[in-house]
Write a structure and sequence with these properties.
The chain has four helices and 13 strands. It has 269 residues and is an alpha+beta fold. The model has no long low-confidence stretch (mean pLDDT 95). Bound molecules: 2-oxoglutaric acid.
Amino acid sequence: MFQVSDADLKSYEEDGACVLRGVIDQSWQEKLAAAIERDIASPGPFYHGYDSEDGKGRFHGNLRIWQNDSCFHEFCHKSVLPGLAQQFFASQRINLLYDQLFVKEPGTTNPTRWHNDQPYWPVRGRHVMSFWMSLDPVTQDSGALNFVRGSHKWDRWFQPEKFGKNTAGNDYEKNDDYEAMPDIDANLGDYDLVTWDLEPGDVYVFHGLTVHGAGGNLRQDRRRRGYTVRYTGDDAYYDTRPGTSEPLREAGLKDGDAMTSATYPLLIG
Ligand SMILES: O=C(O)CCC(=O)C(=O)O
């Protein structure tokens, strides 16, 4: 079992993000790479896609793909990730929230707008986190994620918006308790940003309230096959506020219920 170091636990706790090196082995990388190609060729029912902003490149997005492909299913359930989530949360229980693909092909200029995730998700509580990896080396110019250090402690919930300005589909319902995301790019000096280049096998670990974003994949020689898996722990509970994503809701749960259900399976505990 991969042991998370005290320094990584501290970074996650204090900064809301850290990086773990070399946790996804070669065999999983190969299986996931093949599964990603299957999803691109024949996306499952929750496919949403993102139109490329200037007609160049391609940004493939999809979610809950573990329910459509046995490789993603096994990875979300049986890889090192649930055990890592348990270490970060110090939690008895670990539930899968969902998994998601963000594949920016070479020359896809779409940035990933600054946002925090939990306002999109029908879940409350502090035990909510993501692991993001890429099957390709990731640098700033190919779409590395950038995190606002400590923003998970702001307890600020930002109004969800669509990722692609041309992307079809409904806008997220307005939540009067949420606020608009400030213009971080215009005021970079006001924010303490942290980012890392990644090699295949490395993962970003970040809290559900950590503000993050990414540039486009401006490289012509390299894909950026981003894949993220989200987990919850003991103090998470179901909560369908306005603004939360319809495809992530679970008809069998009521607000206030513990997460365990067909959509959010209990993996540990
Ligand atoms: O890969 C991206 O561009 C966005 C990833 C992201 O926002 C996430 O995993 O929460």
